[in-house]
Amino acid sequence: MEKKLSDEPPETAEKPEVPAQKPLRADAQRNRDKLVEVAAQAFAADGVDASLEEIAKRAGVGIGTLYRHFPTREHLVEVVYRREVEGLCQAADELARDHPADVALELWMQRFVVYIATKRGLATSLRILLTTNSTLFSDTSGRVSGAMRSLVEAAAAAGKIRADVDASDVMHALGGIYSAPNTPDWRERSGRLVKLLMDGLRFGARG
């Protein structure tokens, strides 16, 4: 039976590692990174109540290793959320470097759908963290919208999308994906909506 993690670590629980103070061994860092990667996939697919035992198993480690890195479920959720935000922002830079401006924007919006899927899975714990961890949202606030703004403005400047596009309007349109019903074909439908949105953005572009 899976051990249930409480919202607050017991006094005897081992504190999470702080890399700046005590760098992890290479193998421990690989285990931690793998746990976060697998947890992101599990939360996106099954929600925040995804089995921690199964996450550890899929990551190739024991449940004790997961507890050593993440004493509470909420701590794991926080790390996953920060990872998703960081990955989304890095993707904006990489796509802008490697693709035409409109293609970079469309690919990033498709990546945004994956981010939203994970965020939907984390919703319950994120609401808890909103009241208990003020730095989580202050640290990440504005980073995603800033990444989108840079892509929208680059595509408009290149004449690949309409010049009158406001990045905040695009973000608002994409935000509707978050509240869409969680049907089995949610991801496929969201991907089609991104394509329709891009068709609208390209309509009337200079070239």
UniProtKB/TrEMBL annotation:
The keyword DNA-binding applies. Pfam families: TetR_C_43, TetR_N. It comes from the Bacteria. Keywords: DNA-binding, Transcription, Transcription regulation. Residues 29-88 form the HTH tetR-type domain. PANTHER family: HTH-TYPE TRANSCRIPTIONAL REGULATOR BETI (PTHR30055:SF234), HTH-TYPE TRANSCRIPTIONAL REGULATOR RUTR (PTHR30055). This is AcrR family transcriptional regulator. The lineage of its organism: Bacteria, Pseudomonadati, Pseudomonadota, Alphaproteobacteria, Hyphomicrobiales. SUPFAM superfamilies: Homeodomain-like, Tetracyclin repressor-like, C-terminal domain. InterPro entries: Homeodomain-like_sf (IPR009057), HTH-type_TetR-like_transc_reg (IPR050109), HTH_TetR (IPR001647), Tet_transcr_reg_TetR-rel_C_sf (IPR036271), TetR_SbtR-like_C (IPR049445). Residues 51-70 bind DNA. Residues 1-17 have a biased composition (Basic and acidic residues).
